[in-house]
C-alpha cells in the first residue's frame, strides 16, 4: 500500500481533524484515510445528483434578489 505525506498543515487543522477522529472513535490516521477515500469516491455524477436533490428541495420557494439587498445595504 502506498504512503502519503502531507506537509505544513496548520496546527488548527490538525486539532480539528483530531477532534473529528475522536468523535468517530478513530485514530487520526484512520480518520484521514476515511476522508480521503470518501473524497476519491466523489465524481461529477455524484455532484450532479446532490445538486439535483438540492434543487428539488428548494423548488417552489421564493427568494429575494440578492443584488437588490446588496444595493440597499450600500445605500445606507
Topology:
Layout: H1 11-23, H2 28-41, H3 44-58, H4 66-74
Helix pairs in contact: 1-2
Keywords:
single chain, 76 residues, mainly alpha, 4 helices, 0% strand
Main pleated sheet: none
Based on helices, strands and strand pairing, what is the structural class? mainly alpha
Query: Strand percentage, roughly?
Result: under 5%
Distance between the termini: 60 Å
Q: How many strands in all?
A: 0
What's the number of domains? 1
Approximate helicity band? 55-70%
Give an overview in words:
The protein is mostly helical. It has one domain. The chain is 67% helix and 0% strand. It is built from 4 helices and no strands. α1 crosses α2. The longest helix has 15 residues, at 44-58.
Give a quick rundown of the structure:
The chain is mainly alpha-helical.
